[in-house]
Amino acid sequence: MHAMPPCSSLGDNKINTSKSHLSKALSFIVSPILKMWKFFLLLLTNLFAKTALAYKTGPFFPNTLFDSSYCLSWRVAVETNNAGPWATVPIECVLYVGRYMLGGQYNRDLETVMEMIGAYLDGMEAGDDDMDAWVLDIDDTCLSNLLYYQGKQFGGMPFDPAAFKSWAGKGMCSAILPVLDLFNKLIERGYKVFLLTGRDDLTFRDITTANLHNQGFVGYERLIMRTADYKGKGAKFFKSAMRKQLMDEGYRLRGNVGDQWSDLQGDYLADRNFKIPNPMYYVP
Ligand SMILES: [Mg+2]
C-alpha cells in the first residue's frame, strides 16, 4: 500500500505547476521582445533623432511628407549650378538639407573635394619666386555659418541681411576643419594664400580677422574685403576684379576654393576652381 502524500506536498506540487506555467507564459511573451531589443533600441534612437531634428528645423515633416529623391536631385542641380539663382531651400527639402548638413554626407562630400585638391597639389610645386598663389573664400569655405543657418531652417527661410550681419559681427564662426588643413598645407608648400570675401571692409575687418585667427587661420598673405568702390556690385564682378588685381601684381593663381559659383566664375580665373558644397543659400 502506497502511503498518501501529505496535503502540504500536494499543495506544493500545484504551486510548482502554476509557477512552471507562469514561467513558460512569461518566457513566451518576453523572449521575442528580448530577442528584438536591438531593433527596438534602433527604432527609439531613430525616432528621437528625427524628432530632435524636426524640432530644430521648425515644422515637423513626417517621412511620408517629403521626397528625398526629389531633394537629392534638387541638391545636385544646385551644386552643379543647373538651378541658376535660387532664393530659398524648397519647403519640402528643409528636413533633407538639415540631414545632409548634420548627418555626415556634407562632411563626406567636403572630404572628397579636399582629396581632389590634394591630388591636384601633389602634381605641382610652388615656384621659388613666391608668386604661386591660392584664393580661398571665407564664409562657408574657411569659416562655417552652419550654426546660424540651423536657426534659419537650413536656408528654408529667406535671407535676413540684418540677422546675418549680427551673427557675423559676433566673430563666432567655427573653422571648417578640412579647409583649415588645406590652408595650412598650402602655406607649408610655399603658396601665398589670399582670403577673398564679400564681407564689408569697414564694418567687418577687425572681427573677421579676429575670428580667422581664433580659429587657426594664421599666416595668410592678405585678407581682401569689399570696399566702398564695390558696394552693391555682385560677388562675381567684385571677386573677378580682385583676382585681376592679384594677377596684375604678378601672382599666378593656381587654385580657387569657394562655396558659391560666384566665387569661381567671371574673369581672371585661377588654373583650377574647386566648389565646396553648400545647399543652404545662393549668392549672386
Ligand atoms: Mg562663401
Automatic annotation (TrEMBL):
Key words, A-Z: Signal
Record has Signal as a keyword: yes
Gene3D superfamilies registered for this protein in UniProt: HAD superfamily/HAD-like
GO MF annotation: an example: acid phosphatase activity
Top-level division of the source organism's lineage: Eukaryota
PANTHER family, A to Z: ACID PHOSPHATASE-LIKE PROTEIN, HAD SUPERFAMILY, SUBFAMILY IIIB ACID PHOSPHATASE
Protein name: Acid phosphatase
